[in-house]
Amino acid sequence: MSDDPQPNPFEGMPFFSELGKMLSQQGPLSWDAARQVAIMSATGGEAEANVDPQLRITIEQLARVAELQVSSRTGLSTSVSGSGLKIVPVTRTQWVQTSLEAWRPLFERLAAALADDGEDEPALTDPNDPAGFMAPLMKMVGPMMLGMTAGGLLGQLARRSFGQYDTPVPRSPSDEVLVVPANISTFGDEWSLDSDDLYLWVCLYEVTHHAVMGIPHVRQRLEELLHRYLDGFEADPGAFEQKLEQLDPTAMTDMSGLQNIFSDPEALLGAMRSPQQDALLPHLVALTSTIVGYVDWTMDQIGASLIASYQQVTEAVRRRRVEADPSDRFVEQLFGLELSQSVYEAGAEFVDEIASQAGDDGVARLWADPEYLPTPNEIAAPGVWVARVGLSADLSDSQLDELGDQRFFAYLHFREPHSPYDPPPPFDTMFGPDGP
Question: At 435, is the secondary structure helix, strand, or coil?
Answer without folding.
Answer: strand
